[in-house]
Amino acid sequence: FNSSILLFFDKILKGEISSAFGLVRPPGHHSNRYKCAGFCIFNNIAIAAEYLFREKNVKKVAIFDWDCHHGNGTQDIFYDGSENGQLLFFSSHQDGRTIYPGTGFTNEIGSGKGEGHIINFPMAPSSGDDIIQLLYKEIAIPITNEFKPEFILISSGFDTHHTDRLTRMGWTIQ
């Protein structure tokens, strides 16, 4: 885990900066509550969200996860909600029937306090920029605006690029 992210949060909450960009690799989105998975040891994005809830009294956080692979660990951690705040999780990824980890379907919506706060966008292989832009413009951004998070965290994978030789998405650098 990279503690510079926590420093960013502190500076934002004090009004010293309005936003921050931290490059933390890997995002850890395959690690769940009980185990490491998919080359991920710590779920950095989940740690960051819980830090905001527990230590900074933030009430609402949204996480956008875009990657060829579903953010199954992050989904697992927040599937039943957080005891400390409200979390909205979006994962846009290649259809789980065609790639690891085989999860991230539209019927996986959360339960208990998390019900309706898990939103998956499984996409067919070779889906391009037009699909992802439409999903975020027409669905993710309006839902996020209605949710009114105090922080938006991004778990960004790089394997959605059309030149990636191991996966099959069609995104460009747009």
From TrEMBL:
GO terms for biological process: epigenetic regulation of gene expression. GO terms for molecular function: histone deacetylase activity. Signal peptide: none annotated. Residues 6-173 form the Histone deacetylase domain. This is Histone deacetylase domain-containing protein. The lineage of its organism: unclassified sequences, metagenomes, ecological metagenomes.
